[in-house]
Inverse folding.
């Protein structure tokens, strides 16, 4: 009986505990149901967050074009490949969504990607064994071009997926690299965590980064555990805002000529530095600009020179400054060109070192100031400043020509020169470009006053900014007169002196005569400061330069060239430092003036004709060939396919007849590239995704892939190039050997 009572008591206690627990749990459920909150977390929001997936919609960075619409920089779509390896993603689907046959998948991918089959297979199997939902493939799965992606998708391999990733691409390699600069993906900290964004590092990419970069959008929707949209997904779409397009003032044709000529001089003379600027003196537009050393913005590694020397490397310019010294004297009314002076040596005070003319102070006896300019007499310059103008008045003209300030060109990193004008010796040497410094762009800006009848123009390199979506011009640069340091009459008189500096019998600039156009200009041979004091000595330790304009009477183009410490020919002892400078100036200016259809003021005039490139994509190879033949084009059709799938020129681009156009057919094979330029082979390798290795410079003399060989992505192409001089020398040597064999 006692036991029975105990049992009843315990049962009652347990019943009470059970009822309390039930009420507690029930109350908790009722509270959760009523409030929808657990531990301060809203269940509705939590469920929505779990069901909701979102993706970033990448914006496109604005393109950079030349003045005529040639693409210089753009976002190239590439793809990152991954594989779904969890079979649950295929449940309830008619087609498999995951990798069902790892071996076949690995073999198929390896054949297209030119990769190791075992590596791909191992990645897939490891993902399956470790219960991963998806796997990636390292470097071989990144940066996949659209064409290769399409080939893989055509194989319909289950589970192989792609994510689009843009990279910044520069189709012309080293072309205008210091102007365009480059942009790369960088990790950026935001309120929502770290993201990757393409950021401009140098050049226009950096200067115009805020305009070029777009704003990414996103898409979000609710989905099930298999990542499939629900019937009512509550989709939110925020479209991306693409960046604006920037059009430069540079002309791709003239820039190409400049780049090629600089490369030739670089190979032959191996100078320490080179800079060249081509400008329209009537507007201030930079038509072309380049430096050596340069770099490839697609692969900015081991760069020898990040700086744009044309705007960032002021130096003692030498005798090119004399055009401004003479201009100041003429404008001040103290100049008599026929007045004689004793050349050779000039000393203003006993305790100040005398200045000498460049022929070791021998001079040419008593000559006129006009002849002194043509002969580039330091003594004439010194006398004009010290005896005619007076140093203080000359300084006023230096300020009027803006040698004391930046030009304001729309490029980052400009560093102006400095007028060194504290002591009598400094005031004297500034007259002929020594001691004081100036940058090449400062020299060009000041020279616009001489070329443009006294009006000095601000140099600029951005032509216009265009809305990439609508094509509407947002901003347009216009010529800006920033000073008038001399009168029209003075400018005309100085231009006549510049012509004498090139064409007279005693001119130092005779090498700069063009065949079809009169040239006015001034040479410069500037000393290089020695870090240990004084100046470097030796025949090659100078910066050789020239600032010229043509046609001389009414300049349409103006060009500055400087070559620092070239390796000159010593065997004969006759090659002057102006030789590499003249080679650059003469080739670029003659070709540029003809290309722009500027009427020559000497020689016969032949108008340069161009033709416009139509859209050849998906057109028959036969029709494309007929068009190119009809326009007497220089072209190469790659392969024997029936239709065209890629072309080297932009649709609507105006092309010179001698400029090579490359068309890729749907069955590409290796063409014969003998006698091609490096630039054309580089275009070909880029279009076909070949790994190019080039030895030498000039034109191709041998190729590693035989003509007619089928091509695949990543194939190695080695080429050897030689300059015309090297080929002629080789031919002469072979003829000598043949002659020797004949007589033996």
């Amino acid at each position: 009986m006692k036991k029975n009572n105990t049992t009843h008591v315990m049962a009652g206690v347990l019943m009470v505990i059970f009822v309390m627990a039930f009420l507690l749990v029930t109350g908790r459920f009722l509270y959760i149901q009523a409030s929808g909150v657990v531990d301060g977390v809203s269940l509705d929001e939590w469920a929505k967050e779990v069901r909701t997936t979102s993706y970033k919609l990448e914006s496109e960075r604005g393109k950079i074009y030349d003045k005529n619409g040639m693409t210089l920089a753009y976002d190239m779509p590439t793809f990152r490949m991954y594989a779904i390896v969890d079979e649950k993603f295929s449940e309830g689907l008619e087609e498999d969504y995951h990798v069902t046959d790892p071996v076949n998948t690995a073999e198929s991918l390896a054949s297209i990607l030119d990769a190791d089959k075992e590596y791909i297979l191992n990645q897939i199997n490891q993902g399956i064994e470790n219960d991963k939902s998806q796997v990636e493939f390292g470097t071989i799965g990144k940066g996949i071009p659209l064409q290769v992606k399409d080939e893989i998708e055509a194989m319909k391999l289950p589970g192989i997926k792609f994510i689009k990733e843009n990279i910044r691409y520069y189709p012309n390699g080293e072309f205008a690299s210091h102007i365009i600069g480059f942009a790369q993906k960088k990790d950026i900290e935001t309120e929502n965590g770290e993201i990757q964004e393409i950021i401009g590092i140098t050049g226009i990419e950096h200067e115009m980064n805020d305009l070029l970069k777009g704003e990414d959008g996103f898409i979000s929707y609710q989905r099930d555990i298999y990542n499939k949209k629900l019937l009512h997904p509550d989709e939110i779409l925020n479209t991306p805002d693409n960046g604006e397009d920037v059009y430069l003032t540079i002309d791709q044709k003239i820039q190409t000529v400049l780049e090629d000529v600089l490369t030739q001089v670089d190979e032959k003379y191996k100078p320490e530095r080179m800079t060249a600027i081509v400008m329209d003196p009537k507007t201030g537009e930079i038509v072309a600009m380049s430096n050596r050393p340069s770099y490839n913005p697609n692969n900015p590694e081991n760069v020898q020179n990040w700086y744009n020397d044309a705007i960032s490397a002021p130096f003692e310019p030498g005798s090119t400054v004399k055009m401004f010294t003479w201009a100041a004297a003429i404008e001040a009314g103290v100049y008599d060109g026929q007045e004689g002076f004793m050349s050779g040596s000039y000393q203003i005070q006993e305790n100040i070192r005398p200045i000498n003319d460049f022929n070791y102070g021998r001079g040419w006896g008593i000559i006129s100031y006009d002849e002194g300019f043509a002969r580039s007499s330091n003594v004439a310059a010194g006398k004009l400043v010290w005896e005619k103008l007076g140093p203080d008045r000359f300084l006023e003209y230096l300020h009027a020509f803006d040698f004391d300030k930046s030009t304001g060109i729309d490029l980052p990193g400009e560093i102006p020169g400095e007028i060194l004008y504290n002591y009598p010796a400094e005031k004297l040497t500034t007259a002929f470009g020594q001691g004081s410094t100036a940058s090449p762009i400062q020299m060009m800006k000041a020279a616009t006053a001489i070329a443009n009848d006294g009006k000095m123009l601000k140099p600029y390199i951005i032509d216009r900014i265009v809305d990439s979506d609508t094509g509407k011009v947002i901003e347009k640069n216009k010529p800006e007169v920033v000073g008038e340091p001399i009168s029209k009459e003075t400018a005309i008189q100085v231009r006549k002196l510049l012509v004498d500096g090139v064409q007279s019998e005693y001119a130092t600039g005779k090498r700069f005569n063009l065949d079809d156009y009169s040239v006015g200009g001034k040479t410069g041979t500037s000393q290089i400061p020695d870090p240990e004091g004084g100046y470097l000595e030796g025949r090659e330790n100078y910066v050789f330069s020239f600032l010229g304009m043509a046609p001389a009477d009414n300049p349409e183009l103006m060009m500055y060239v400087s070559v620092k410490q070239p390796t000159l020919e010593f065997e004969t002892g006759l090659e002057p430092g102006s030789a590499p400078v003249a080679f650059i100036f003469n080739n670029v200016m003659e070709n540029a003036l003809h290309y722009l259809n500027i009427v020559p003021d000497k020689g016969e005039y032949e108008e340069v004709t161009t033709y416009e490139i139509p859209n050849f994509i998906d057109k028959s190879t036969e029709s494309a060939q007929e068009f190119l033949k009809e326009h007497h084009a220089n072209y190469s059709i790659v392969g024997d396919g029936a239709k065209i799938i890629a072309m080297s020129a932009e649709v609507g681009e105006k092309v010179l007849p001698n400029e090579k156009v490359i068309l890729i057919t749907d069955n590409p094979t290796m063409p014969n590239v003998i006698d091609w330029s490096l630039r054309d082979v580089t275009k070909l390798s880029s279009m076909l995704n070949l790994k190019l290795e080039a030895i030498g410079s000039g034109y191709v003399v041998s190729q590693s892939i035989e003509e007619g060989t089928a091509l695949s992505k990543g194939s190695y192409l080695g080429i050897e190039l030689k300059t015309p001089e090297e080929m002629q020398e080789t031919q002469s040597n072979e003829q000598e050997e043949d002659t020797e064999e004949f007589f033996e």
